Amino acid sequence: MQQDLWLDGYDADASHAPAEAFRIRVQQRQVEIPFHHHRKGQLILALHGGVTCEVEHAMWMVPPQYAVWIPGDMPHSNRATASAQLCFLFIEPGAVSMPDRCCTLKIEPLVRELILALAARHHEPAQHPRITRLTALLFDELPRQPEEQLQLPVSGHPKLREMVNYMEHHSDQPRTLAQWAAMLAMSERNLARLIVRETGMSYRRWRQQLQLIQALHLMLGGQNVQQAAQALGYDSTTAFITMFKKALGQTPGRYLDALQQG
Q1: DSSP E strands: which ranges in the chain?
Q2: Are residues 136 and 35 in the same domain?
Q3: pTM exceeds 0.85 for this model
Q4: Which of 67-76, 78-87, 200-209 has the least mean pLDDT?
Q5: For tag attachment on the chain, is the N or C end more exposed, with fewer CB atoms within 10 Å?
Q6: In this predicted model, what pLDDT tens digit does every residue of 17-56 receive, in sequence order?
Q7: Do residues 46 and 28 both lie within one domain?
């Protein structure tokens, strides 16, 4: 059973069940939950479409077959693409060993199916033997999921937020650092220093990190390598493949083949 939108009226902290899962269906428009927090940790698994999660100083754009882990009591916002399908898994503090920081996890098929099975039975009491067994197996496997570097460091600085917003929505029209400096009425050197100070990355590395996340969204959504390269403003598919391989250690084709094979 799928829940419409974002579990209206659900209070994650009202229950002390070790784990609760819900399958979410987003309607034909982008949906956003503003900043909030809860006692429980939350795993957001993208099944179809994608979800962007933001915490202080960082943004996670999670494509299908990945999940973002948000520890308990950490303020965050969520934004899902139109028609996205997601799973929310809420975990009671201390129930299983999970990272104490936000991170992106590559979800193995077994773990994905365990979360879906738990979501399909969310009306059953947590003490039911079947729920207990599912939860125990999930907790055995969940800490083993590999982390992926798919976060984009951001900050509250208005000029950087303007840059991120543009790069998100105009990925096929990349701007150079010099072009940004002119638009923001700054010297190129001062803008470069601002980006490093706020994100820990050079402008080129920061922009490529966003492009990498966007590339995964596009290719897991059905676009081929050439289409993804074009959508991200690359004149050469070879240059796009080089960027991808440098970041993730494999060509896009091999990376996606390995992901789909589980």
Answers
A1: 3-4, 19-25, 31-36, 41-48, 51-55, 58-62, 66-70, 76-80, 85-91, 103-106, 147-148, 151-153
A2: yes
A3: no
A4: 78-87
A5: N
A6: 999 999 988 765 666 777 888 999 999 998 877 777 888 7
A7: yes
- Out of 148, 166, 181, a domain closes at 148
Q: What is the DSSP letter of 95?
A: S
Bridge partners of 23, per DSSP, are 87
- Give me 172's structure tokens: 């096929």
Q: Are residues 8 and 93 in the same domain?
A: yes
Q: For the chain, what is the mean pLDDT?
A: 86
Lowest mean pLDDT among 80-89, 97-106, 241-250: 80-89
Q: Domain of residue 142: give its range.
A: 3-148
CATH code of 184's domain:
1.10.10.60
Distance CA 87, CA 192 (A): 38
- Indicate if 108 and 76 belong to the same structural domain: yes
- 143 and 160 co-located in one domain: no
8 Å CB contact between 111 and 142: yes
